[in-house]
Amino acid sequence: MFSNPDSEERWGKLDRPLRRVLPRSLLGRSMLIVLIPLLVTQAIVLVLFYGTYLNVVSRRLSDGITGEISLVISMLERTPEADRREELLKDAAARTQLQFIFHPHATLRREGTNHVLGPIDDDFERALKQGLGRPFFVDWSAAPETVRVSIGLPDGMLDVLTPHKRLSIGPIWMFLAWAFSSSAFLFLIAGLFMRNQVRAIRRLAEAAELFGLGRDEGAIRPQGAREVRQAAIAFNRMQERVNRFVAQRTAVLAGVSHDLRTPLTRLRLSMAMLPTKGMIRAEDIQPDVHDMVADIEDMERLIGSYLSFARGEGAEKPVLTDIRALIEDVAVAARRAGGRVLSVEGKEGVEVPVRPDALKRALTNLADNARRHGGAMRFSLWEGERRIEITVEDDGGGIPADRRKTLLEIGSSGNNGGTGLGLTIVRDIIHAHGGTIRLLESPLGGLSVLLSLPK
């Protein structure tokens, strides 16, 4: 889909003022995300509660009192005698909990109501208009906790003192206080939890900043939610890989000067011992030339190994690769180089996403080691549910168990002629694939290298 530049520009104009109002910190925005739905929910609950339940109850209370007043007025109109009216009002007051005062020959001077309490006042006024059909005045401030209703009659005026509690369904402010106090309490709890989450993210950001400045503070302790913990664990792994990478490359640089010093010294001595006077015959200097060529070959091999290790395999992308076919290619190359491949065992058609050139290079290094130390080698492939295992075995002299761990470090070699980088390169390639490498004793009598790769 193509974006509309005009709509993006309009949204940008609306978004800029909004960004000025919104908090910039993650904690502030998270709390805003919590607060707005909380307030909206409480407002909806309040409107629905008062608009349905409270409103219905208020109308029923007003209709009930209006019906009682209307009944008393109807009885008064049917009883013209003054003494009987007084007894009637006393009896009605006892039965209805309302006070009735009749003023003969009095007139109603004011109609309506003198105070607006909200829906309660409106419901009571509506009920009186519909139920009485007479002029009336509602005085909400006549006495404490009492509402005076003055009703105009043909021969006088009737005052009805109504307790306020018979009209009110309870203080609405208590409900509001409970609603907002519970919201504030929940908001406070959410703030405490969010602060802990943001603290873990802030700690991760500070650790990344310090690590970028070269100040390694060590691994950070995973805290917070699962995603934040996963980010902290990933950062610790990244930090460990970067430190290992820097340490390996530093060791390589140190090894270059150390390992190249020996052949350079031999070359210098050979050049110094060459005859400088008289007739020089080729057969006389042939051994020296042969030694110098061998030293140059050693230097080329050393430099090639160090450059291969330093270059790494980071640029290659993983592709779905037939592992059995790749192992057979390595076995064919090992036979051409003079090695004796006993067998290539394993299931065919096992395809795994790997970096084929890097994995082939790792297997080639193992095959070269097997050829140099023994001569005979065997490859095997095993497929599991979530991983595959590649085993390269030789019939050489083997490696003692106490040296197998150090053999994977830079500078450790199984013989005096190696650079000590062969197995280290294999280890880095396998680790880059998320796998593991183990050195075991081979049934052939030599070393068995077990490579485990995820599928």
From TrEMBL:
Give all residue intervals belonging to the Histidine kinase domain.
Answer: 255-455
Q: Does the keyword 4Fe-4S apply?
A: no
Recorded catalytic reaction(s): these are:
ATP + protein L-histidine = ADP + protein N-phospho-L-histidine
Record GO cellular component, one term: plasma membrane
Report the residue ranges that make up the HAMP domain in this protein. 195-247
Coiled-coil annotation: which residues? none
What are the transmembrane regions? 26-50, 172-194
Provide the topology term for how it sits in the membrane: Multi-pass membrane protein
Q: Where in the cell is it found?
A: Cell inner membrane
Chief localization? membrane
Q: Which GO terms describe its molecular function?
A: ATP binding; phosphorelay sensor kinase activity
Q: Name one Pfam family in it.
A: HATPase_c
Question: EC no.?
Answer: 2.7.13.3
| Keywords (A to Z) from UniProt | ATP-binding, Cell inner membrane, Cell membrane, Kinase, Membrane, Nucleotide-binding, Phosphoprotein, Transferase, Transmembrane, Transmembrane helix, Two-component regulatory system
| Top EC category | transferase
Q: Mind telling me what this protein is named? A: histidine kinase
Native organism is Gluconobacter japonicus
Lineage of source species: Bacteria, Pseudomonadati, Pseudomonadota, Alphaproteobacteria, Acetobacterales
